[in-house]
Amino acid sequence: MSSGIRDNTASGRFELDVNGQIAFATYERRGPVLAIKYVEAPVPLRGTGAAGELMRGVAEIARAEGSKIAPLCGYASAWIRRHKEYHDLLA
C-alpha cells in the first residue's frame, strides 16, 4: 500500500497530499468492488504525475484488500488500461 495515500472514508475519497495540494479519487464501495467515480488533481499538480501516483496507490490498496476496481471515470479507465500489471484488479 502506498504510504502517501490516505483513505478519507468520511468523504468517500482517496487523497494524496503533494506540498499542500490534494489530488483525490472519489469512490464507492460495492461489496468487493471499489468503483472509482472521479479523479482530480489541482491545476498546479496537473502534468506532474500526481494523479498517476494516486491511482497506483489506489490500485495497491485494492490489491491489499482483495478488492477489484471498476474505473468509472475516463482518467481511471485510461490509467488502468496503460498499466497491465493491474489488469487483474479490473471488476
List keywords for this structure.
N-acetyltransferase; alpha+beta; single chain; five-stranded mixed beta sheet; Aminopeptidase; transferase activity
Overall number of structural domains:
1
How many beta-strand runs? 5
Mean pLDDT: 94
Question: What Rg do the Cα atoms give?
Answer: 12 Å
CATH superfamily: Gcn5-related N-acetyltransferase (GNAT)
Structural class of the secondary elements? alpha+beta
Percentage of β-strand residues: 35-45%
Q: Do you know the CATH topology? A: Aminopeptidase
Largest sheet: 5 strands, mixed
Number of helices: 2
Q: Globular, elongated, flat, extended or rod-shaped: what is the shape?
A: globular
Low-confidence stretches: none
The share of residues in helices is: 25-40%
**CATH class, anyone?**
Alpha Beta
If strands are numbered along the chain, what order do they take across the biggest sheet? 1-2-3-4-5
Keywords: Transferase
Organism: Microvirga brassicacearum
GO molecular function, one term: transferase activity
Domain N-acetyltransferase: 6-91
Structure at a glance:
With 91 residues, the protein is of the alpha+beta class.
Q: Could you please describe the fold and organization of this structure?
A:
The protein has 91 residues and is of the alpha+beta class. It has a single domain, classed as 3-Layer(aba) Sandwich (Aminopeptidase), CATH 3.40.630.30. It is built from 2 helices and 5 strands, in the order ββββαβα. A 5-stranded mixed beta sheet has the order 1-2-3-4-5. α1 links the parallel β4 (33-40) and β5. The longest helix is centred in the middle third of the chain and has 16 residues, at 50-65. This is N-acetyltransferase. Keywords: Transferase. GO terms for molecular function: transferase activity. Residues 6-91 form the N-acetyltransferase domain.
